[in-house]
Amino acid sequence: MDQAGGQRAAASTGRLEHGAVALARSQVQPDARPSGGDQRLAGEAPREVHRPLTRGDPTVSNWIYEFENQVHHRGREIAIIHNDQARTYDELNRSAAAFAHWVRERSATRVATYLTNCYEFYIAEFGTLKAGAESVAANYMFGEQTLRYVLRDSSADVLVVADKDLPAARAAIQGTEVRHLVTLDGPSGDGVTALADIVAGYPHYIESAPKDDHDLFNITYTSGTTGTPKGVMKTHRNIGAHVSNLVHAWKLSPASRWLCAGPVYHTSGLESSSLPVLAAGGSVISLRWQKDAFFRLVDRYRPDSAYIAGSMVVDIADYPHPERFDLGSLRQVIAGGAPMPARAYQKVLDRYSFVLCERLGMTEAGIIFVDKVGRPGAYEPREELPAHIAGSCGSPLYNQTQFRLIDVVTGEVRQEGEGELQVRGDSVFAGYLNMPERTAQSFTEDGWYISGDIVQIENGHARHLRRRDEIIISGGENVSPRTVENVVSAHPDVVEAAAFPLPHERWGQQVCVAVVVRVASSVTPTELLEFCSSGGKLARYEIPKQIFFTDELPKTPTQSVPRAKLTERYAAVRKPEPETAHD
After folding, report:
1. How far apart are CA 113 and CA 162, in angstroms?
2. C-beta separation of 275 from 243 below 8 A
3. Omega into 187 within 30° of 0, i.e. cis?
4. DSSP letters along 197-219, please?
5. Domain parsing of the chain, residue ranges
6. What DSSP character marks residue 275?
7. Mean pLDDT score of the chain, rounded to an integer?
8. What CA–CA distances, in Å, run from 384 to 329, 355, 370, 387?
9. pLDDT value for 4
10. Between 1.10.10.10, 3.40.50.1010, 3.30.300.30, 2.40.50.140, what CATH number should domain 472-570 receive?
């Protein structure tokens, strides 16, 4: 039985079980996966057919039904705007139906996308769901080796890529179960099918596959402390609960028009922005981040809200001539993924009339806290809003997710003060794909997800302090120090290496490495940086920005390297870095 099957078994008892509890019941087999069709367990009674998700109804979770409901009522209204082309709900639905036919014809069960923000991503994502398959989001910044790992781990049948990425995709699928490559424009041939040909050549209507609350919706890969990306499994209930929650909290409606610049391969770009807006019948302006395009699109398409990464706030704060654009429609900008730099935050408040909101969330559970200075959806005049607390990522969002803090020393449970954040509820993920032991370790026996985030809560406001596992968060991307160290240490002149973060105004943190080289080595830091950048060994955001040579690394009595000491040692000598580290 697979992990999703374990969740279905739990459903027959009338409650959703997560983590160690569900895994113990399901006896997970690492290579197991859904086989399609009727997946009821032996002796399990037929389930009710779920109605479309409605506001305030936590028991209904199939998001694709809600999208189709909007197609029925608002088919001629704009769903997606990308590259100055507006696509209606009906257009998107028809194209997704064609892709669904193609997926079913090939009996594909998992469809991976290796795309940045574009209209075609939504065709592939929604078509996959209509077909009854599961989507796999591969981070567009992953290098060839990491992409191959994701494809192999997920057992994806199909990979959808942009035309320019086809050579890298052909290399990455070697040794995987990928049987079909899809590019966006084509031409078709030589083992590749163009999405444009699929849309033109297949029927534009399909009856969407019925899915249970506990069937998998998608698998999103996120980096962890071991350096191996983890496949975060979200069920239809997980997505439905999170989307319903945000529709309520942000008072989304058919009048909502959001500029979404969060990457679609992240939770922020899909589950926390695009899906809630479309579920409410609103319009999404899809943007792969470019600061000039942000201002131009706000001026032209008049969004009331924007959803961006925290690092993008710097671009908005320092933009040279914002007065050239009419930004009057923009009421709020929601940022997250990495803390907003204090200087940039204050500069935005001084220069613009819109409200800037911070939030704290995670791939495994969605948004947990939002800065109520924005009171999303209410849009009070700014002079009537409560003052923003510097460094705060807000107060608990109205949702179906509980949270608590655990003192890392005493284990005491608390609601305020400092501690490790734990969360529980319908929006919390089902587990890590093919990692039953890691999943069990990530949950308490009574179902609380152990986030690893050390958070301080005072007077209802949360402040993210650090990661317990010393993960580096650069521009909203998780970077495992061990991954970087393994690559640097593979150089023949390197004896020892330790990765650590240094502050960076735009990215929050930048990846740096302290290196001990062998005696008489002539290798230079520049040569090591080139070594790390070559061959797709690291994702772009994982590549070190600076390398420091040292005679020896600091060590604890147990011979581990205290990374905080390296940060302290080199903070005063770091050099300014270019602003293209994650472009």
Report:
1. 9
2. yes
3. yes
4. HHHHHS-S--PPPP--TTSEEEE
5. 401-467, 472-570
6. H
7. 81
8. 19, 12, 18, 9
9. 40
10. 3.30.300.30
